[in-house]
Design goal:
alpha/beta; 6 strands; two-stranded antiparallel sheet; 2 domains; Trna Endonuclease, Chain: A, domain 1; globular; 10% strand; 279 residues
Length: 279
């Protein structure tokens, strides 16, 4: 899933994204749920009704930047619409396993269980992503690291950047990659929890550092998130909308969701292999 033309004009460092974040927090506090849309003329009243110091501060900011209100209203509807599409693309664990069986005969790995009675989650998304990466890399002859044991790094005589955490894959290597990705799969029938919010924060942390590095040195690394798990993500819609913000701000280059791993992901790998193989 890519950003749509017309809704991607705000850069990752545009104050607009801080306004979005604050409005999300305050509108939830005031209404107890996400509105599907907010009229530009209602935004100020929604914030005033929250009655919090933060909302009062945002009201003052918006009164001095009222040109933001129309764009904010348009994006508010868009982030809701995109998050609904994301949920529709997600699969159950059973569906994901069936799809994996169609591309690989290898045994699925598991995350294991730490406490008795908890759901044993398979690594079906990880295994699917890895299998498709290997297939595309064998065709192109470009190496790939699908099991990083250390952090990614961009190093030359003039600069250095080291990822703040370990990632799930890199093309062609952890040293000076052209692409990196993070996989966020959550299975089981219970509702999701704070781990989903942590996952979004991890994506933001890595992506924000990459964009700051790019701003300074002009080196772009494609940053992808691959997510799945309909049942658990369905209970964390606010986190899905935060993922939409990362996509539309450019913190993420693309968001690969559920069934897209079988269609769009091989295309992405081929595109990145071509970048890695070019002089």
């Amino acid at each position: 899933m890519k950003r749509e033309t017309g809704f991607a004009e705000a850069r990752w460092d545009d104050p607009f994204w801080n306004v979005v974040r604050m409005l999300a927090d305050q509108s939830i506090a005031q209404r107890g749920r996400y509105a599907s849309a907010i009229d530009p003329h209602e935004i100020i009243s929604v914030l005033q009704a929250s009655g919090t110091p933060a909302a009062h501060g945002l009201v003052g900011y918006l009164r001095n930047h009222d040109d933001v209100l129309e764009r904010l209203s348009d994006y508010w509807w868009k982030r809701r619409e995109v998050s609904d599409r994301i949920l529709n693309l997600m699969r159950t664990e059973e569906e994901a396993k069936a799809d994996y069986a169609g591309i690989s005969d290898q045994v699925l790995q598991s995350y294991g269980v730490r406490l008795e009675g908890y759901h044993t989650s398979s690594k079906v998304l990880v295994n699917t992503v890895d299998a498709l990466v290997r297939l595309e890399s064998e065709r192109s002859g470009v190496p790939v690291d699908t099991n990083p044991q250390s952090r990614a790094a961009l190093i030359s005589d003039q600069h250095i950047w080291v990822s703040p955490r370990r990632l799930d894959g890199a093309i062609p290597d952890l040293l000076n990659p052209v692409a990196i990705w993070e996989i966020k799969e959550y299975w089981g029938k219970t509702g999701g929890g704070s781990k989903m919010s942590d996952a979004i924060y991890e994506l933001q942390l890595v992506g924000l550092e990459l964009r700051m590095f790019e701003e300074k040195f002009g080196i772009h690394v494609n940053h992808y998130a691959v997510v799945d798990g309909r049942d658990q993500w369905s209970s964390r819609k606010s986190d899905i909308r935060r993922a939409v913000d990362l996509l539309y701000s450019g913190i993420l280059d693309e968001l690969v969701v559920g069934e897209e791993v079988l269609t769009r992901w091989p295309e992405i790998v081929a595109e990145c292999n071509a970048l890695a193989g070019s002089p």
